[in-house]
Amino acid sequence: MIDARGLVLGYRERVVLRDVTFALHAHELVAIVGPNGSGKSTLLRALGGTLTPQAGSVAIDGTPSHALDGDERARRVAFVPAEEHADDDVLVREAVELGRFPHRPWWQWGAQPEDTPLVDAALARLYLEPFAERRIATLSSGERQRVWLAAALAQGAPTLLLDEPTSHLDLAGAYAALDTLHALAEDGAAIAVVLHDLNLAGSSADRLVLVGDGTVLADGPVSDVFRSDLLTRAYGAEIAVHHTNDGALVAVPSRRTRGERR
Amino acid sequence: MPLTSRRGVGVLLLCAALVASLAVGLGVGAVALDPRTVLAALAHPHGTDAASVLVWTLRLPRVLSGTLVGAALALSGTMLQGMLRNPLGDPYLTGGSAGAALTIAVAIALGVPPPAYAALAFAAALGTTVGVASLARSGRGLSPERLILAGVAVSSLFAGLTTLVIMLAPNTTISLTILAWLGGSLAGHGWRDVGWAALYAAGGALVAASVVPALNAIRLGDVRARALGVDLDRTRWLVLIASSLLTAAAVSVSGVIGFVGLIVPHAVRALVGADTRWSVPASLPAGACMVVLADTVARTAAPPIELPLGVLLSVVGVPVFVMIAFRRSTA
Q: Is the peptide bond before A165 cis (omega within 30 degrees of 0)?
């Protein structure tokens, strides 16, 4: 679905990440984790084709991303940015319907006959039917996150990239959102999601990508990446990994070094 | 009532209001004509009776130029507000109409004949808009904030220069002509003026129509719009070009008429919602109706003089605008 090789990513002269090689396949849910400012969102933007790498290449479904025009890219990859202000008067149904935008030629204003069932299904999958005609400004931030996810589903792209989709969700809401993503991956989607919460990532993703020190420090099954030594290196503070009784992994910064983070 | 039917009713209401305002505009004046006489006169373009002559040579070109000016200004304002994502968007905010106004003031001072106004206004509106957009360009493309800043700065400069032209005009008659024109008026227009301006307005409307869906996506935010495949810079340039064509059409026919481009988009959104696929088309009858009605008041309220249309629209428009804004903020 997405195949990135030898990426160097940054803005103007500032290099954020180098030596990044990453592949995302159908049927998997990959969580990208790492400390603040480590370049998780930068990596996601490059994978989605909205940030041009300074070196290296990103192929989307086998086509170099720079060779795709906006519509073609958006039919293959749905990108959900972290919180960005949308106009207050956008209605929930309008926002989800805009997911169909890249499927219409420019002279086509209205919804196509095939759009309506897709929009309805996306609304239903995220339990948004009761909100369909509400202005998004009247929703809670958690409900709004579900709207953006529904819009990405309506977009119908086989690859989904999400930047911190759970940042405003409470504990149960965040795990429920990841369950939804997991179900989508089981249905065949390729999903990469940037997460802040290590424990959420560790318990929900099929694969972890740990970003730190200006590169990808580790990429593999959760049990291979969710290790005290790797996390300690990435976060610059001693982090212990515990196993709970039901087998989940929990990362906790050690009390001793909490104040010493560099 | 379901959303789509609510919007449909809103558009129908606006179209009905336009038809009613046209009927009023054709019937009311120094000689009042009842609707039946107006209809009979409309059916006889070459009739020689007083009513046919009055309708076909005076009132019809006048209400049609009002329709054109109102529709063009409202469409331009709706597109700019959508593109800038700023409720103050208006042809006056991006400098286009200030440029057109200055150019025509100079043309009047130099004695250029009126038929050249539309072409001059278009060249000036487009030139100013492109100039403003070039000032506003930064490394990351065309930013709305910088566009507004540059537009306001250039508009003030041109307004100052226009005042200078009035003061330096060869004689008082010319100064007064420029002033009357700046006050905005639909007086004394024949078919030819309307035809030329209609051509520019139609061009502007076509360009506008091509970016309406992209404007809808921009309402979700710049990053989301790009992720959906919208080319932000291309969309912004096309809106600026459409707005220049529409502003030129309006300014060349009626002089400077403020406020329609600012207030109508707000009223229309209150009625049919903010989805650009509804608000953009609905702005056409709304703007037209507003200008035709205001012009009818301007030419009949205080005979034998005509009130300046632009001034009248501001005096009536501001309180209405404040009322709408207040109601929306408390709702």
A: no
Q: Does B222 touch chain A (CB under 8 A)?
A: yes
Q: Which residue of B has its CA nearest to A94?
A: B275
Entry field: residues in chain A: 262
Average pLDDT score over chain A: 90
- C-alpha B258/C-alpha B251 separation (Å) is 10
Residue A244 vs residues A182, A199, A203, A228: alpha-carbon distances, Å: 22, 11, 11, 15
Q: Render pLDDT for A215-224 as a digit per residue (tens, 0 to 9).
A: 999 999 998 9
Buried-state track B271-299, b at ≥16 Cβ within 10 A, e below 16? bbbbbbbbbbbbbbbbbbbbbbbbbbbbb
Of B85, B221, B229, the CB nearest to A101: B229
Which of A89, A91, A98 comes nearest B228 by C-beta?
A: A98
Question: Is residue B34 predicted with pLDDT exceeding 50?
Answer: yes
CB contacts of A156 in chain B (<8 Å) are none
Residue-wise pLDDT tens digits, A47-92: 988 888 999 999 999 899 888 988 999 999 999 998 788 888 899 9
Helix (H) or strand (E) run with residue B300 in it: helix B276-300
Candidates A79, A90, A106; nearest CB to B227: A79
Q: Tokens for B46?
A: 């070459």
Nearest beta carbon to residue B229 from set A74, A81, A151: A74
CB contact under 8 A, A89 and B213: no
The partner residue sitting opposite B275, judged by closest CB among A85, A94, A155, is: A94
Q: Chain A interface residues facing chain B, Cβ-Cβ under 8 Å?
A: 48, 50, 69-75, 78-81, 84-87, 89-91, 93-95, 98-99, 101-102, 104, 106-110, 133, 148, 151, 155
Asked if B128 and B137 touch (Cβ cutoff 8 Å), the reply is no
pLDDT at B111 over 50: yes
ipTM: 0.89
The correct CATH number of B3-330 out of 1.10.3470.10, 1.10.287.130, 2.40.50.140, 3.40.50.2300 is 1.10.3470.10
Phi-psi region of A7 (alpha: psi -120 to 50; beta: other; left: phi over 0): beta
CB distance B216–A72 less than 8 Å?
A: no
Lookup result for tokens 């990808």: A216
> Are B213 and A108 a contacting pair at CB < 8 A?
yes
Q: Do A87 and B274 touch (CB under 8 A)?
A: yes
Closest CA to B185 of B100, B16, B310: B310
Answer whether A189's CB lies under 8 Å from A160's CB. Answer: yes
CA pair distance A202, A181, nearest whole angstrom: 14
Q: Residues of B with CB below 8 A from A94's CB?
A: 216, 275
Give all domains of chain A, ordered by start, each with its CATH number: 2-84+156-260 (3.40.50.300)
Model-level pTM? Answer: 0.88
Q: Are A173 and A185 in contact (CB under 8 A)?
A: no
For the record, the structure tokens of A87 come out as: 């106009």
Split at pLDDT 50, 70, 90, the class of B227 is: very high
